[in-house]
Amino acid sequence: MTTVVPVEKKVLHENQRIAGELRKRFEEQHVLCLNLISAPGSGKTTLLEKTLNCFQKNEKVALLTGDLQTENDARRLAVYGFPVQQIVTGSVCHLDGKMIERALEKWELAALDLLLIENVGNLVCPSSYDLGEAAKIVLLSVTEGEDKPLKYPSIFVKSDVMVITKIDLLPYVSLNLERMKANARQVHPGIEIIELSCKTGDGLDVWLAWLERRRDSVRERLLCARS
Amino acid sequence: MHEVGIASEILRVGQIEAARRPGARLIAVSVRIGVLAGVDSDALRFAWEVLSQPTEGVAPRLDIEVVPRRNRCEVCSMEFFSDMLGEDCPACSSRNSRLLGGDELQLASVEVEE
Ligand SMILES: Nc1nc2c(ncn2[C@@H]2O[C@H](COP(=O)(O)OP(=O)(O)O)[C@@H](O)[C@H]2O)c(=O)[nH]1
Ligand SMILES: [Mg+2]
Ligand SMILES: [Zn+2]
To answer: Residue A56: which domain range?
Structure first.
């Protein structure tokens, strides 16, 4: 005799459980955690370098960077003097909650207020794995074409912000920038859009201001918790 | 290509659920996959075929139900289904809607032989 047994569980409920615990810890310790996602080469590491370069040395920021192989990105980021760990995933095309949990064993979360995670270069798989972050940020460079939000809608739907990178290259590519933005807004009407170039520095102030706003809201919660 | 990881997780959870009923054999696992889950059904089926082969007997079936994108209009609160890219509200034509569903990756049920 065969029986159908209802289960109704998330397939990735184990990852979801870990991500939920991480999110709770980030909230309790007042750490803003951001998950940066893009195709390989869109400029995640470069944007992080520029960001760290603008920070005071006493900023309580730490970084995790994921790649299939090599410690290159961690080396690039370590130059700025903030704690960095490379997560080498081997053959896994995304970071998952367990990897973050394991990496955080080496750090005192209470000593941080910003954790920046660079995911493995991939526009598809990272969108399925919650890392406990406060927000996902998707980067898309002007050389990748305006249709990507329509081809990879999941990540654009789940990201609070789309950062359009490498706008210094606009004169050299036949990209319809307005169409790219319209495509992102079609799949996610509320998505915020920031355009910048890490080469010329154009738009970096807008990115830093966005970051500061998100950090302010965490600081406000901290003040409320103390008073 | 994370469908291999997803397929093995479906199989693992399916086997755990089946094992709750002593002596039962897993016949099938049913999953609901939203169009925005970032999981390709064909790649998942292929991964399943490879992973689910038992050392003896028949491999369990994988039943996939694809779930459309569900939206709620921010202007008039109308709830409506659309394709994965989203659509204007059918009632008031507003572009401004919020995602309600269509990104799920849910194990709905297991079928066991007892
Ligand atoms: N022209 C230009 N090149 C950039 C910009 N940002 C990054 N790049 C280059 O794009 C390549 C990939 O950048 P990287 O940060 O390693 O990308 P990741 O794989 O997303 O981490 C590198 O050669 C960078 O120098 C930019 O704003 N303008
Ligand atoms: Mg990188
Ligand atoms: Zn409406």
So the answer is: 12-213
Tell me which residue in B20, B99, B109 faces A157 most closely, judged by beta carbons. Answer: B99
- A158 — contact with chain B (CB < 8 Å)? yes
Q: Where do the domains of chain B lie?
A: 3-113
The ipTM assigned to this model is 0.87
Q: Please indicate, yes or no, if residue A39 is contained in any of the structural domains.
A: yes
| Domains: count for chain A | 1
Least confident of A82-86, A100-104, A194-198, B54-58: B54-58
How open is the CA angle A117-A47-A140, to the nearest 5 degrees?
90
| CA-nearest residue, atom 2 of ligand 1 | A166
Query: Is residue A7 included in any domain, yes or no?
Result: no
Per residue in A151-190, pLDDT (tens digit) is 999 999 999 999 999 999 999 999 999 999 999 999 999 9
Fold (topology level) of B3-113: hypothetical protein PF0899 fold (3.30.2320)
Query: Which of A11, A127, A158 is opposite residue B10, by nearest beta carbon?
Result: A11
pLDDT at B1: 63
Residues with CB under 5 A from ligand 2 (ion): A 44-45, 73
Ligand 1 atom 7 nearest Cα: A43
CATH code, A73: 3.40.50.300
Contacts of residue A173, defined as CB under 8 A and 6 or more positions apart, other chains included, come to A142, A143
Residues of chain B contacting residue A5, judged by C-beta atoms under 8 Å apart: 17-18, 20-21, 109-112
For A86, counting Cβ atoms within 10 Å of its Cβ (0-12 exposed, 13-18 middle, 19+ buried), the class is: buried
> What digits encode the pLDDT tens for the residues B49-94?
999 988 778 899 999 999 999 999 999 999 999 999 999 999 999 9
